[in-house]
Each structure stands twice: as structure tokens, then as C-alpha cells.
Amino acid sequence: AATLSFPGGAAEFPIRTSVEGNSSIDFSTLTRQTGFTGLDYGFVNTASTQSAITYIDGEQGILRYRGYPIEELAGKSTFLEVAWLLIYGELPTADQLGEFDEKIRHHTLLHEDLKRFFSSLPHTAHPMSVLSSAVSALSTYYEDSSDPHDPDHVELTTVRLLAKLPVIAAYAHKKSIGQAFLYPDNSMNFVDNFLKLNFGNMAEPYTTDPVLSKALDRLLILHEDHEQNASTSTVRLVGSTGANLYASISAGIQALSGPLHGGANEAVLQMLARIRDSGEGVGKFVDRVKRKEDGVKLMGFGHRVYKNYDPRARLVKESADEVLAGLGVNDPLLDLAKELEQIALEDDYFKERRLYPNVDFYTGVIYKAMGFPTRMFTVLFAIGRLPGWMAHWREMNLDPQTKIGRPQQLYIGEAERHYPS
Ligand code: MLT
């Protein structure tokens, strides 16, 4: 058993250990024993999702995919290797990974008609809206091979989404800056192909940059899954209705786009730029946060689950130093972010509330150094999160026992009223 404290009390609750030896909190029993539903933390939790994909211990700051610590995966694996692990449950053999990679390269091209779809959208469209709309549109091209109950269709759709999402993302970027779309170069690996689609142009040959490739691959790994967050539970909920993978992922992208979820990496950079431009200094900004001044929020800090340092944030911070040094970039926003972190971590206000930098705090600085515009940051989060979303969708949908989802409601309105006569 472990002790969970929440506003108004603390309770002992059971830990469930699976046959593979993975342990997780037994939330159903907890809810029955204590009446705690998650509402006390300000979010609603149906307390019934069982999953063997990702384990988080927010008190200790632990994150594991299929039992493997995130630190080891980020240091030793590639994005596609971890995608395989999340989706199929095991680290792939060299042959399995090679075959997976080949299949993905084979499916990168988008239907030519989709170009007209992109050109019908305004160039001011947020790339997350473009991404979600285009993924939704994919199901119109593959209606005959996207049956959610046909395992072959699910395999094909899984590969198609992994292959096409980066291409759609790059097109959304190119469209927003008024540049021509490039065709994928399937001689390149996943990350280099994506970087070329974004930063290559028609006039000059593209040269790969190992610092950028390694850093982006690592960032994508760090974003691959995070159990039942808003977007993943959206993907599961939509998928539980029998909607296909394209529809479910498109809904997940929309959920991720909000500033309280994936959109926070964009909001962090905007906040840092505002602090820099105002010239007020970090200390004054922190004071205004503590006074809860209207519209002043410390973005990228705190997490519903982590009451300790988010292990991903630690790795992202390391990457920020490596990438900026590797590219020879000196960004005052990174210095501001570090100063902000230091002041906050030493301040009782933040210590008492157990507020630490989260995964969004340093990512924007890296993406900016790579050359991505701010509005692309959450799109990069979505590419990283895709394998996790699909792993959850498949875990749920390939289980014949799955039922349609229905979040639990606590009715708090009037019991019964009589219509005025
Ligand atoms: C995520 O990675 O999805 C974010 O940290 C949000 C969350 O897990 O609630």
C-alpha cells in the first residue's frame, strides 16, 4: 500500500501488481474506499482505465514505458524503436525494427489531391488545426482499409499515420510561411526526412545536422506517452465508440492543442519573450505570479501528476544546453528560463505547492534554436505523442471485452423542480 494525500486528508490505497511484475495504483479500490475521484485535484478521472503501457510515480518523479525507465530509453533507443515498444510491448529486434522502418518509408507520400486540401485553408491557420483536419481527411482516402476491428487494417493505419503525420506537419509549416511543399526523401531516416521537409528548399541541396537529428529524436521519445492525460483519454474515448484510428487521432490532436496541455510549450516561449521585452526582470515577474495578478501565469510549471521534478524536464533541460552549444546559439531566453527555475525552486510559495518545471518548460527554446516557428511547437509534441496514442487505442480496441467509454458524472444540480404553473 502507499499513502496518497489530497486536500482534506490522506488515505492508504492498494498497489496492484500485474503478472509481469509491473505495479500500479489500484484506483478503483481507492475510489470505493475513500470517495476520492480526482475532483479534489481539479480534474475528473473515471478511475477505471487499466493499461500496461506507461507507469508514472509522480511523488518520486518516475516515468517508465513498458517498464523501461525513460532516462535509459532516451539515452539508448531511437524514436521508432520506442514507438515499437509502446505499440507492441517489447523492444524490437534489429530485423523487426528494420522492417518497421521500411514500411514507414514506403507510406510517406500523401495523395496529390491533399495538396488542394491544404491550399483551401487560410495561410494564417494554426498548424495544429491544419494537422488535425488533414488527419481527419486521411480517413476519406482510406475508408476501405480503416476498419477498427480488422487487425490488418489497424496495422496498415498505424504505419500510415507514423509515415504521414510528419509530412502533414511539415506541409502545415511550409504553408504558414508561404513556401513550396517538398516530397519526402525516403532514403533518409524518420527524423532527418522530417527536418528536410521543414528546412530543405527547392534551390539548394539539404545537409543533415547530427546535433539537430539526435536532439529531435530524443525530444520525440520524451513525448511518446504519458498515460491518461487529456489527449490520450480523448483518443481512447473516441476510439471506444468504434471510430477509426484517423478520427481518434485527429480528436487527440485537437485535445493536445490547448494551452493547458501541449499548447503550453508555445505559451512558455511567449511568456519568456514577454519577460525579456518588458525589462522588468524575473524576480518581479515571479512576484506578480505569486500575487496572482490578472493574466500573469507561470507557464510550464507544475503538473497534475508530478509533485516532484518531471523526469522529462530534466532531460529536456540537458538537451537545451547540448543543442544550443552544438549549434553555437546563445539564446537569452534560455538564461531567463534557468533564472526563473532557480528563483521558483528556492521560493517557499513554489516549494509548498510542489511546483516544478514540466516537460514544456525548456522544449520551446530548443525548437526555436532548430528554426521552428513558435506555432509549430505543439505540432512537434503531437508527432512525438502519436505512438502513445496509437498504443492506447490498440490496447483498448483490440481487446474484445472493450466497452464504449462513459466518464463518470457526479450530479450537483437541483434534485427535482416543478415547472411554474
Ligand atoms: C503530457 O505529457 O501529456 C503532459 O505532461 C500532460 C499530462 O500528462 O497530463
TrEMBL record:
One of its GO terms (molecular function) is citrate synthase activity. Gene3D superfamilies: 2.20.28.60, Citrate Synthase, domain 1 (1.10.580.10), Cytochrome P450-Terp, domain 2 (1.10.230.10). It holds the Pfam family Citrate_synt. It comes from the Bacteria. Pathway: Carbohydrate metabolism; tricarboxylic acid cycle; isocitrate from oxaloacetate: step 1/2. It catalyses: oxaloacetate + acetyl-CoA + H2O = citrate + CoA + H(+). The keyword Thylakoid does not apply. Keywords: Acyltransferase, Transferase, Tricarboxylic acid cycle. The keyword Acyltransferase applies. NCBIfam families: cit_synth_I, PRK05614.1. PANTHER family: CITRATE SYNTHASE. Belongs to the citrate synthase family. This is Citrate synthase. It comes from Agromyces ramosus.
